[in-house]
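RECORD TYPE: inverse folding
INPUT: structure tokens
STRUCTURE:
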């Protein structure tokens, strides 16, 4: 975890200081130089908690250098809105990574220095610098619409704020090659110059090749090749033969055996070639200046895009970090308190992963009015790591970073004040004790209710009784100031202080009494054993010394240790029982799931049986239908009554469909119905309207919907409506008001079937169930309404209907009577004047 030096974190400051400032006694500062004292303390702000190490860890998740400045400037803040904004970006980036691959900025260089250079009027950028800005513009075009029409509103808003560089990219893209040279397409003049250069170079080479062939037979040349010297085409000539080749000598070989001669035949061509190269260079400089001006015109937009691309890459780096280290997004409390579940220090996590080991997470909770936690336990038990983990969690959260925990609810702290480790200094003439006191004094002078205080081994390095008394006094000061404080200690008096103080809470690092090994688990509510003698034995101290130490242990200390051990045993026993209960609950849940699965299998088996029964029922009724149709046709032919054949066939089909439905519903009830225990109890009472009753030979209860005379009742069972004798029903002891039609399972699986069954069941239950009122409508409107009413009644299985049309001039009545006489669903109708006399007759549909 690094060297142990003192630290004082002030999260309200955004100053940066030289990391090499040495530790010094606070008394060495002049009283008038309080600001410098704060700066020096702030310099230690993150060292002890290793915040800089976390930043370096985060840096490894960047895809490129463009976001590096944001990482370097990352600091804890107290602006809650800004922190939450950063965390919302992280949340959306993490959610985006679950669905898509991460957008990369690996091809982008940090353009900030280039943009500063671009701000100087008249300065032209070099090709690589222009290429870097083009890459920024291209990346902005790619990411600008990446989150459009997505649930990631924050990312979309950020990316959408980048300017549209499509025109700029279209003008400049491809004009500069990756190696920094300009493509010939950069300008027409450049292309023309390069074509002329290539043509002229070909002429020079062709002329020289002819001379090479000419001189090669006379052994004038050292090699039969054409080469370049001083950007001029030359041929290699033996030194002793140089007078035979007229031309300009451009140097000799290192051995002096060869001179490089530019023949007179090619001098004019080479001169022209050099002139073209100079013109090409001038054109390139002109193009670079032109490109620089185009970029300068959008310098502000490019700078904004660079910042946004940095923020996007930084947000995704945080999301990748959260995924790699199983981090959560912290929440912030408006009242004093702290909740951390499965907390780990990310640097310790990284170190243990390299060793293929896992860190042990800690869980702690401190709620108001408790603001002080005293952590005790064995040496090497993890107390210091716990304090550092708490401090780094607060710093990371306020820096807008995910926290290495499964849940983190934290306050906003103005300062994180830490005194951890051995601060003795020979140069500053500080002993361990005096260094602690000097550091604690600087903390005492500034601590307030919005600060977090971390104290490691408070009251140590001096006489135990005095150290404990001093520690209690210090903790009382922080408690009175309202600072949230976490302390590690071995002093029994501090454990007693925590037990007696309402605002304090004991906690301990667990120690396995069997293996004599620390488990590194934090247990809230119980003080811990120091287990110094046990730890010494585990570390290999001579057994005779260990036994002597146990014999010399003060009886009071031995009793206190025994009491603490007893409390831990009881807690362990309670945890064992709780685990047993959890195991039993898991077994019960598994058994219930098994029974539910078994029930579902049986239900499906019954449904398969119903399917086969349905097929058989439909087959039987299809045979009945064919026989009935044949019988009707034969009867019609015999009696010559072909006019009403269609109506009779339709009525018979409707009746058979109704019979098939009733029989099918009865089979469903018989197969799926199962009487409950409460439905088997009955009362000795005649059935009444609305009573829930059981019907003989049916296992499912029904509801009385009508009383038909003295001996019969109408009952709805599921979707089946039937008329039975009163002696075939029994009123259940438990009457339920809900109608079975709405609550019973719909075997057919369709809402339409349920609606029809409900209409069928209620057809005779009230005067309005089979009635339509068309008073006040025109004849056409009435015919249309009544026609739909008849169709619906026919489909729903209603057998008696009433149409209310009024008297008036009789136009509406005559129109409806004509309609009834021809309608296929109407067998007969009774005019209103004959209704009383013919009440016993039925109107069939």
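DESIGNED SEQUENCE:
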């Amino acid at each position: 975890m690094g060297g142990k030096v003192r630290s004082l974190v002030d999260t309200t400051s955004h100053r940066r200081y030289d990391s090499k400032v040495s530790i010094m006694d606070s008394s060495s500062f002049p009283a008038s130089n309080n600001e410098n004292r704060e700066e020096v303390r702030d310099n230690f702000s993150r060292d002890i908690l290793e915040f800089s190490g976390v930043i370096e860890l985060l840096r490894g998740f960047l895809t490129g250098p463009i976001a590096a400045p944001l990482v370097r400037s990352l600091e804890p803040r107290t602006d809650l809105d800004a922190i939450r904004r950063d965390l919302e970006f992280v949340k959306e980036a993490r959610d985006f990574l679950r669905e898509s691959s991460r957008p990369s900025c690996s091809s982008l260089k940090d353009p900030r220095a280039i943009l500063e250079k671009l701000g100087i009027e008249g300065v032209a950028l070099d090709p690589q610098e222009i290429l870097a800005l083009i890459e920024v513009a291209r990346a902005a075009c790619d990411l600008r619409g990446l989150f459009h029409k997505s649930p990631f509103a924050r990312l979309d808003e950020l990316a959408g704020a980048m300017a549209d560089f499509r025109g700029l990219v279209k003008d400049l893209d491809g004009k500069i090659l990756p190696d920094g040279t300009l493509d010939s397409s950069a300008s027409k003049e450049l292309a023309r110059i390069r074509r002329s250069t290539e043509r002229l170079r070909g002429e020079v080479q062709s002329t020289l090749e002819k001379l090479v062939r000419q001189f090669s037979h006379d052994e004038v040349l050292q090699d039969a090749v054409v080469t370049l010297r001083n950007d001029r085409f030359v041929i290699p000539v033996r030194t002793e033969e140089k007078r035979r080749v007229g031309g300009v000598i451009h140097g000799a070989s290192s051995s002096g055996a060869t001179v490089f001669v530019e023949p007179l035949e090619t001098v004019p061509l080479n001169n022209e070639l050099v002139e073209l190269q100079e013109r090409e260079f001038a054109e390139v400089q002109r193009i670079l200046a032109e490109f620089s001006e185009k970029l300068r015109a959008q310098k502000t937009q490019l700078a904004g895009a660079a910042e946004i691309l940095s923020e996007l890459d930084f947000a995704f780096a945080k999301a990748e970090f959260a995924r790699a280290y199983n981090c959560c997004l912290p929440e912030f409390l408006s009242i004093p308190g702290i909740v951390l579940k499965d907390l780990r220090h990310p640097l310790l996590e990284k170190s243990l992963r390299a060793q293929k080991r896992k860190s042990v997470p800690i869980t702690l909770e401190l709620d108001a009015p408790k603001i002080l936690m005293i952590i005790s336990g064995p040496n090497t038990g993890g107390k210091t790591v716990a304090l550092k983990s708490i401090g780094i969690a607060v710093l990371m959260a306020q820096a807008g970073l995910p926290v290495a925990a499964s849940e983190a609810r934290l306050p906003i702290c103005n300062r994180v004040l830490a005194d951890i480790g051995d601060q003795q200094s020979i140069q500053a003439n500080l002993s361990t004790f005096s260094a602690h006191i000097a550091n604690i004094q600087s903390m005492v002078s500034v601590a307030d209710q919005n600060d977090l205080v971390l104290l490691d081994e408070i009251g140590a390095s001096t006489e135990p009784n005095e150290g404990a008394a001093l520690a209690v006094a210090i903790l009382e000061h922080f408690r009175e100031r309202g600072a949230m404080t976490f302390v590690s200690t071995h002093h029994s008096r501090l454990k007693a202080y925590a037990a007696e103080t309402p605002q304090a809470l004991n906690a301990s690092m667990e120690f396995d009494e069997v293996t004599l090994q620390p488990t590194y688990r934090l247990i809230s509510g119980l003080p811990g054993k120091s287990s110094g003698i046990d730890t010494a034995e585990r570390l290999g101290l001579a057994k005779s010394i260990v036994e002597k130490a146990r014999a010399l242990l003060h009886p009071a200390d031995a009793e206190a240790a025994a009491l603490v051990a007893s409390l831990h045993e009881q807690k362990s026993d309670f945890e064992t029982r709780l685990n047993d209960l959890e195991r039993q609950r898991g077994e019960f849940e598994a058994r219930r799931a098994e029974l539910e699965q078994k029930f579902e299998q049986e239900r499906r088996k019954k449904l398969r049986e119903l399917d086969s029964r349905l097929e058989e029922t439909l087959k039987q009724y299809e045979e009945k239908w064919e026989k009935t149709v044949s019988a009707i046709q034969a009867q019609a032919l015999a009696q010559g009554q072909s006019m009403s054949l269609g109506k009779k066939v339709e009525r018979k089909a409707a009746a058979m469909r109704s019979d098939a439905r009733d029989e099918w519903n009865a089979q469903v009830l018989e197969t799926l119905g199962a009487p409950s225990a409460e439905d088997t109890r009955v009362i000795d009472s005649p059935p009444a309207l609305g009573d829930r009753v059981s019907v003989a030979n049916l296992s499912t209860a029904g509801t009385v919907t009508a009383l038909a005379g003295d001996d019969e009742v109408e009952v709805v069972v599921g979707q089946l409506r039937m008329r039975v004798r009163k002696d075939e029903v029994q009123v259940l002891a438990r009457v339920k008001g809900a109608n079975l039609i709405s609550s019973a399972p719909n075997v057919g699986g369709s809402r339409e079937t349920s609606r029809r069954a409900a209409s069928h069941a209620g057809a005779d239950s009230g005067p309005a169930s089979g009635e339509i009122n068309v008073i006040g409508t025109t004849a056409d409107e009435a015919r249309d309404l009544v026609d739909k009413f008849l169709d619906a009644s026919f489909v729903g299985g209603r057998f008696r209907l009433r149409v209310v049309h009024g008297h008036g001039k009789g136009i509406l009545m005559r129109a409806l009577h004509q309609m009834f006489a021809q309608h296929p669903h109407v067998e007969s109708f009774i005019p209103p004047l004959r209704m009383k006399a013919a009440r016993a007759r039925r109107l069939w549909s």
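NOTES: The two ends are 90 Å apart (CA to CA).
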